[in-house]
Please model this.
Amino acid sequence: LHWTNSGATPYDMYQNIMDGAIAQPIGKSSQAGNFGRFKNAEATAALKEYANATTDAARTKALNTLQKIFVEQAPMIPTAAAPIGAEFSTKNWIGWPSEANPYAPPQHTQRTALEIVLNLKPSTK
Model:
């Protein structure tokens, strides 16, 4: 059983599953992810390319590579989806994550909850 990173893009999931740079040898635990010890030089390179990309085109190219590898080599078999959703009101507070400003997953149970709270400001409505 394996949970993945949650984030605003598929990169977060792929990085946690397919990054050979964080893979550990059998017998050594990994705190960073890649618990299946998946190693593929092309996937690791695409993750690095995405992380260093400065254009949407470069990010899209890297994600396309990662998706192809994921589908063809199945480093993990998803068994369930747990979409992260959230509701909020701007009646009293503004600064919530949004489509225009997706700085963090909006769900309050994620590890970015403190980041969200620190971004909130009193509403002037």
